[in-house]
Design a protein that fits this description.
about 270 residues, alpha+beta, Jelly Rolls, 13-stranded antiparallel sheet, 13 strands, globular
Length: about 270
């Protein structure tokens, strides 16, 4: 008997988990899975109805490689967001994740590096990147990302599709539109390049999502040790942006690797 209050029960059967596992492990350009109607429909609608305003988010990014808001300040949001976080972080859900992805003994940290919300206004973007390899405070290793989107009626011409790129960053092999109640799960490795292009919805519409990151104590995908998020320019970016991105990312990662080496919090 499942204790899930939020997850669509049709995704919990052994048949569904076996199908998801096959899809995940055979996906290209790297292991990933797209699940529609992920939450119970009435729950997804309530989350959309109570999605916090952009101004309530505690982090705003507006730089060379990203423009978006991120919020892990759950105490400022409707209580149902905390309940969703608890369910996705539960041992029962981690068991479901293990069956679907093969990642055993995963867990979610109870901080901004574990779960939160993303939101982007017109003009928001997130350049192609790989994620940081390790929680630098808890010394555990990032293994999976889970995103749930809350964007009813999202149109292709607004862009903002999650892009999955090949290992050498020459081809975008898949685009996933951020549709309402759609979940995307993908592995985080040294070549799981992803991001989204600049969005252009009407001013009153934002790109909304819930994120969760799963960790393990075992280092499987990051033999090089710690690195921070690493942005990569697209093939059609200007020469200037390519150079600026390369310099910025090299300096940033070198500095943060030294912080980790000497135990400095950041």
């Amino acid at each position: 008997m499942s204790n899930f209050q939020f997850i669509n029960p049709s995704h919990l059967s052994e048949e569904a988990k076996n199908l998801f596992s096959s899809d995940f492990n055979n996906a290209k350009p790297y292991k990933h899975l797209v699940i529609d109607h992920f939450l119970k429909e009435e729950i997804a609608q309530k989350i959309y109805d109570h999605f916090p305003e952009y101004e309530k988010f505690n982090k705003k990014y507006d730089g060379l490689n990203e423009r978006k808001a991120e919020g892990s300040n759950f105490e400022d949001f409707d209580p149902m967001f905390t309940e969703l976080k608890k369910e996705i972080s539960s041992q029962e859900f981690c068991d479901w994740i293990a069956k679907v992805t093969g990642v055993e003994k995963s867990f979610v940290t109870d901080d901004a590096m574990g779960a939160g919300l993303h939101q982007g206004k017109n003009g928001s973007f997130l350049d192609i990147h790989i994620d940081y390899s390790m929680h630098h405070l808890q010394k555990v290793y990032r293994r999976l990302n889970l995103l749930i989107f809350f964007n009813p009626g999202w149109k292709d011409e607004w862009a903002g599709h999650t892009e999955l790129w090949n290992e050498d960053m020459t081809v975008c092999e898949k685009k996933v539109r951020p549709d309402f109640n759609r979940c995307v799960i993908f592995e985080t490795t040294g070549n799981s390049y992803h991001g989204y292009g600049k969005i252009s919805p009407p001013e009153e519409i934002t790109r909304k999502s819930f994120y969760t990151y799963f960790y393990t104590h075992e280092n499987v995908n990051h033999k090089e040790g710690y690195h921070d998020t690493i942005f990569k320019p697209r093939p059609d970016d200007s020469t200037s942006k390519k150079l600026k991105t390369s310099v910025k990312e090299t300096l940033k990662n070198f500095a943060k690797q030294q912080f980790v080496r000497f135990g400095i919090r950041f």
